[in-house]
Amino acid sequence: MSRLDAKLPAVVLVHGGRGPVGAELSAGRAVVRAVVEPDLHGPQACWQAAARVRAVVEQVRGDPRVDGERIALWFFADCGPLSDEWLRTPPPWLRCLALTDPVLDGSAGPNFRPVEAVEVVGAAAYAGIAGAMRANELPIVLTRSGAAPAGVEAFVAAAEFAAASLTVLDTPTGGQRQAIDQVLARLG
Protein backbone atom coordinates (compact mmCIF):
# COMPACT_ATOMS: atom_id res chain seq x y z
CA MET A 1 0.00 0.00 0.00
CA SER A 2 1.47 3.35 -0.98
CA ARG A 3 1.55 6.29 1.38
CA LEU A 4 -1.29 7.86 -0.60
CA ASP A 5 -3.40 4.72 -0.13
CA ALA A 6 -2.61 4.37 3.58
CA LYS A 7 -5.54 4.51 5.92
CA LEU A 8 -5.67 7.41 8.35
CA PRO A 9 -6.34 7.52 12.08
CA ALA A 10 -9.54 9.24 13.18
CA VAL A 11 -10.62 11.52 15.99
CA VAL A 12 -14.28 11.62 16.99
CA LEU A 13 -15.12 14.98 18.59
CA VAL A 14 -18.08 14.88 20.99
CA HIS A 15 -19.09 18.51 21.42
CA GLY A 16 -20.97 19.96 24.33
CA GLY A 17 -21.50 23.43 23.00
CA ARG A 18 -17.81 24.37 23.04
CA GLY A 19 -14.64 23.17 21.41
CA PRO A 20 -12.90 25.01 18.57
CA VAL A 21 -10.56 22.06 17.98
CA GLY A 22 -12.09 20.73 14.77
CA ALA A 23 -10.53 23.14 12.27
CA GLU A 24 -7.15 23.12 14.05
CA LEU A 25 -7.16 19.32 14.13
CA SER A 26 -7.62 19.00 10.40
CA ALA A 27 -5.30 21.80 9.29
CA GLY A 28 -2.40 20.09 7.57
CA ARG A 29 -2.85 16.87 9.57
CA ALA A 30 -3.21 13.36 8.21
CA VAL A 31 -6.29 12.51 10.25
CA VAL A 32 -9.98 12.00 9.65
CA ARG A 33 -12.28 13.81 12.03
CA ALA A 34 -15.93 13.30 12.80
CA VAL A 35 -18.14 15.46 14.97
CA VAL A 36 -21.00 14.32 17.20
CA GLU A 37 -23.22 17.04 18.64
CA PRO A 38 -25.57 15.19 20.96
CA ASP A 39 -28.68 16.76 22.42
CA LEU A 40 -28.24 16.55 26.18
CA HIS A 41 -31.69 17.81 27.17
CA GLY A 42 -34.41 15.61 28.62
CA PRO A 43 -34.59 12.56 30.89
CA GLN A 44 -33.14 10.05 28.39
CA ALA A 45 -30.60 12.47 26.92
CA CYS A 46 -27.39 10.81 28.14
CA TRP A 47 -28.54 7.33 27.11
CA GLN A 48 -29.48 8.56 23.63
CA ALA A 49 -26.29 10.59 23.32
CA ALA A 50 -24.14 7.62 24.37
CA ALA A 51 -25.86 5.45 21.75
CA ARG A 52 -25.29 8.15 19.14
CA VAL A 53 -21.58 8.35 20.01
CA ARG A 54 -21.24 4.56 19.70
CA ALA A 55 -23.02 4.63 16.31
CA VAL A 56 -20.81 7.41 14.95
CA VAL A 57 -17.67 5.65 16.20
CA GLU A 58 -18.67 2.45 14.38
CA GLN A 59 -19.49 4.42 11.24
CA VAL A 60 -16.08 6.13 11.38
CA ARG A 61 -14.26 2.85 12.00
CA GLY A 62 -16.01 1.38 8.95
CA ASP A 63 -15.04 4.28 6.68
CA PRO A 64 -12.66 2.99 3.98
CA ARG A 65 -10.31 5.96 4.54
CA VAL A 66 -9.93 5.16 8.24
CA ASP A 67 -7.61 2.78 10.05
CA GLY A 68 -10.23 1.38 12.43
CA GLU A 69 -7.50 0.37 14.89
CA ARG A 70 -6.36 3.97 15.49
CA ILE A 71 -9.23 5.96 16.94
CA ALA A 72 -9.31 8.75 19.53
CA LEU A 73 -12.40 10.10 21.27
CA TRP A 74 -12.47 13.72 22.42
CA PHE A 75 -15.22 14.89 24.79
CA PHE A 76 -15.97 18.57 25.42
CA ALA A 77 -17.75 20.38 28.23
CA ASP A 78 -21.21 18.94 29.03
CA CYS A 79 -20.39 15.76 27.09
CA GLY A 80 -17.78 14.75 29.69
CA PRO A 81 -20.13 12.23 31.35
CA LEU A 82 -20.33 10.29 28.07
CA SER A 83 -16.69 9.28 28.52
CA ASP A 84 -17.62 6.91 31.37
CA GLU A 85 -18.14 3.72 29.33
CA TRP A 86 -14.98 4.32 27.28
CA LEU A 87 -12.93 4.79 30.46
CA ARG A 88 -14.35 1.63 32.06
CA THR A 89 -13.97 -0.70 29.09
CA PRO A 90 -11.90 0.84 26.31
CA PRO A 91 -11.82 -1.28 23.17
CA PRO A 92 -8.32 -2.18 21.90
CA TRP A 93 -8.63 0.19 18.94
CA LEU A 94 -9.18 3.22 21.22
CA ARG A 95 -5.74 4.82 21.37
CA CYS A 96 -6.58 7.96 23.34
CA LEU A 97 -9.43 9.63 25.20
CA ALA A 98 -9.32 13.41 25.45
CA LEU A 99 -11.39 15.74 27.60
CA THR A 100 -11.57 19.52 27.27
CA ASP A 101 -13.17 21.53 30.06
CA PRO A 102 -15.38 18.53 30.84
CA VAL A 103 -18.22 18.44 33.33
CA LEU A 104 -17.39 15.34 35.38
CA ASP A 105 -19.43 15.83 38.56
CA GLY A 106 -21.56 12.70 38.26
CA SER A 107 -24.84 14.60 38.02
CA ALA A 108 -25.80 12.89 34.74
CA GLY A 109 -26.72 9.64 36.47
CA PRO A 110 -25.19 6.42 37.75
CA ASN A 111 -23.91 5.23 34.37
CA PHE A 112 -22.26 8.53 33.54
CA ARG A 113 -19.66 9.05 36.28
CA PRO A 114 -16.15 9.30 34.84
CA VAL A 115 -14.56 9.92 38.25
CA GLU A 116 -16.03 6.67 39.54
CA ALA A 117 -14.98 4.90 36.33
CA VAL A 118 -11.34 5.88 36.87
CA GLU A 119 -11.51 4.82 40.54
CA VAL A 120 -13.06 1.42 39.76
CA VAL A 121 -10.65 0.69 36.90
CA GLY A 122 -7.68 1.77 39.02
CA ALA A 123 -8.69 -0.52 41.89
CA ALA A 124 -9.21 -3.46 39.53
CA ALA A 125 -5.88 -2.78 37.80
CA TYR A 126 -4.16 -2.71 41.20
CA ALA A 127 -5.72 -6.13 41.88
CA GLY A 128 -4.15 -7.39 38.65
CA ILE A 129 -7.29 -7.85 36.58
CA ALA A 130 -6.02 -7.91 32.98
CA GLY A 131 -8.81 -5.93 31.29
CA ALA A 132 -8.64 -3.29 33.98
CA MET A 133 -4.89 -3.05 33.64
CA ARG A 134 -5.29 -2.25 29.93
CA ALA A 135 -8.08 0.23 30.69
CA ASN A 136 -5.90 1.95 33.29
CA GLU A 137 -3.17 2.36 30.64
CA LEU A 138 -5.48 4.15 28.18
CA PRO A 139 -3.88 7.55 27.49
CA ILE A 140 -6.13 10.34 28.76
CA VAL A 141 -5.45 13.95 27.78
CA LEU A 142 -7.29 16.47 29.95
CA THR A 143 -7.25 20.12 28.91
CA ARG A 144 -8.37 22.81 31.32
CA SER A 145 -8.78 26.43 30.26
CA GLY A 146 -9.74 28.90 32.92
CA ALA A 147 -11.88 27.75 35.82
CA ALA A 148 -12.23 23.97 35.84
CA PRO A 149 -15.83 22.69 35.56
CA ALA A 150 -17.37 20.61 38.32
CA GLY A 151 -15.66 17.30 38.99
CA VAL A 152 -12.39 17.96 37.13
CA GLU A 153 -10.24 18.17 40.26
CA ALA A 154 -11.82 14.98 41.63
CA PHE A 155 -11.14 13.27 38.30
CA VAL A 156 -7.48 14.33 38.33
CA ALA A 157 -7.09 13.15 41.93
CA ALA A 158 -8.74 9.79 41.16
CA ALA A 159 -6.59 9.29 38.06
CA GLU A 160 -3.40 10.14 39.93
CA PHE A 161 -4.33 7.78 42.78
CA ALA A 162 -5.11 5.02 40.26
CA ALA A 163 -1.82 5.65 38.43
CA ALA A 164 -3.83 6.13 35.23
CA SER A 165 -2.08 7.39 32.11
CA LEU A 166 -3.26 11.00 32.49
CA THR A 167 -1.76 14.10 30.90
CA VAL A 168 -3.15 17.40 32.22
CA LEU A 169 -2.71 20.54 30.15
CA ASP A 170 -3.61 23.93 31.56
CA THR A 171 -4.01 26.21 28.58
CA PRO A 172 -5.50 29.62 27.94
CA THR A 173 -8.96 29.62 26.41
CA GLY A 174 -8.75 28.37 22.84
CA GLY A 175 -5.13 27.20 23.21
CA GLN A 176 -5.59 23.62 22.10
CA ARG A 177 -2.38 23.08 20.07
CA GLN A 178 -0.67 21.06 22.83
CA ALA A 179 -3.73 18.89 23.30
CA ILE A 180 -3.99 18.24 19.57
CA ASP A 181 -0.32 17.28 19.43
CA GLN A 182 -0.74 14.94 22.41
CA VAL A 183 -3.76 13.20 20.89
CA LEU A 184 -2.21 12.83 17.44
CA ALA A 185 1.02 11.47 18.92
CA ARG A 186 -0.95 8.65 20.52
CA LEU A 187 -2.57 7.78 17.20
CA GLY A 188 0.85 7.07 15.69
Overall description:
The chain has 188 residues and is α/β, with parallel strands linked by helices. The chain has a single domain (3-187), classed as Rossmann fold (3-Layer(aba) Sandwich), CATH 3.40.50.1820. It has seven helices and six strands. Helix 4 packs across helix 5 and helix 4 (114-126) packs parallel to helix 6. The protein is globular, with a radius of gyration of 16 Å. The protein starts with 7 loop residues before the first strand and ends with a helix.
Describe the SSE topology.
Elements: E1 8-14, H1 21-26, E2 32-36, H2 45-62, E3 66-76, H3 84-88, E4 94-100, H4 114-126, H5 130-136, E5 140-144, H6 152-161, E6 166-170, H7 177-187
Parallel strand pairs: 1-2, 1-3, 3-4, 4-5, 5-6
Helix pairs in contact: 4-5, 4-6
What is the N-to-C order of secondary-structure elements (H for helix, E for strand)? EHEHEHEHHEHEH
Structural class designation:
alpha/beta
Strands, total number:
6
- Unreliable sequence segments: none
User: Which percent band covers the strand fraction?
Assistant: 15-25%
Q: Using the alpha-carbon principal axes, give the shape.
A: globular
Report mean pLDDT, rounded to a whole number: 87
If helices are DSSP runs of H or I spanning 4 or more residues, what is the number of helices? Answer: 7
Question: Mind telling me which CATH architecture this is?
Answer: 3-Layer(aba) Sandwich
